[in-house]
Amino acid sequence: MKRRHFITGTALGASALALNACHRAEENTTTSSVNINKGKKVTLKLATSWPAHFPIMGTGVDNFAKRCFALSGGSLEIKIYPKNILVPALQVFDATSAAQIDAFHSGVYYWKGKNSAFSIFGGMPLGLTSEEMITWMKFGGGYELWRALYAKFNLYPIIGGTTGPQMGGWFKKEIRSLTDLKGLKMRIPGLGGEVMKKLGVNPVLLPAGEIYTSLERGTIDATEWVGPALDSMMGFAKAAPYYYTGWHEPGSILEITFNKVRWEKLSEEHKAIITAASEEMTSNMLQEFRYKNAKALQDLPKHVQIKTFPKDMMDAAKIALKEVLLDESKKSHDFKRVLESYEAFYALNKPYDDISTKNFLDIRG
Ligand code: CA
């Protein structure tokens, strides 16, 4: 697969190069003031929150950079800096805002501390799936709100991938009813963590490198991560045999975010190439997650038990979520405004989804 991608990329790159040469030849004979940077070589520094070539997310952004280079005929080079090479993983937002680097690839939910409304863009418990989320962003007003809020930080965000539905996490003991959650320590971030807190869980935040050891030693009782493909790499099955289906991150999106001033200085051609390459990256990532999750699920060790959370817990989670959203809306006008737009799209989409996708999946069985 990789090799075929590379060949396609190279072939497209060659034709883009030829096209570019034509454009440059034309420019020499006409006086256009529209794209003054056209054809000029631009190099951008992009830092990520992932280790080098981290599967799916890291390789996704690696391919994005390759595609920008190929589509621009080599005039747009995006240099990828994995976490902690130029900037620590969770300082990429600030570093891009301050123009120490040009762009970053990360998850929106990490910046909840900057503005609580960002947690909605990151993904909502019991909310929109990846496809629905992207539809809201593009057609339902989400992008306008996101860009207006990020502009206050001198940032210009673009969707840079999505995980698809995430699993509910790994538990050392089976959860038979809501009461089994009381006092459990679980690694779970974002709004899902807030909901769990109301259900009696003690949500903790741990860096990726410490999760397995904490679970294995019993410092934590449970953890969520992503889905079978990436969870298997973390080895959680060895420490916690109960693997629960998801509810808290049905459609988390990732971002490729640029320093806004730097973005505005790019030529229209380069902006169009970045936009197209990020669209490609997002759909590729969703498909790659789906395929690799399906494979990894088949390959889970035999002792792993797939479970669905009990009904009394999910009923309580729905009530707790309403309380969390109401609390956050009272505290932040931005959160309230983004939530209203999100909920308006949810209400618009649900009746159609019920008679289309949901109905079909029920029929298909
Ligand atoms: Ca997660």
Tell me what the structure shows:
This protein has 365 residues and is an alpha/beta fold. It has 2 domains: 9-164 and 250-293, Bacterial extracellular solute-binding protein, family 7 (D-Maltodextrin-Binding Protein, domain 2, 3-Layer(aba) Sandwich), CATH 3.40.190.170; 169-248 and 302-329, Periplasmic binding protein-like II (D-Maltodextrin-Binding Protein, domain 2). Helix content is 53%, strand content 14%. It has a 6-stranded mixed β-sheet, covered by helices on one side. A 5-stranded mixed β-sheet has the order 2-1-3-10-4. The longest helix is centred in the last third of the chain and has 32 residues, at 333-364. Residues 166, 224-226, 249 line the site of calcium ion (CA).
Offer a quick outline of the entry:
With 365 residues, this protein is an alpha/beta fold.
β content, as a range? Answer: 5-15%
Query: What is the number of independent domains?
Result: 2
Uncertain stretches of 5 or more adjacent residues: 1-36
- Give the overall average pLDDT: 91
> Quick one: CATH superfamily of the largest domain?
Bacterial extracellular solute-binding protein, family 7
Supply the helix-strand structural class: alpha/beta
What is the CA-CA span between the terminal residues? 31 Å
Strand/helix succession: HEHEHEHHHEEEHEHEHHEEHHEHH
Please give the order of strands in the largest beta sheet: 7-6-8-5-9-11
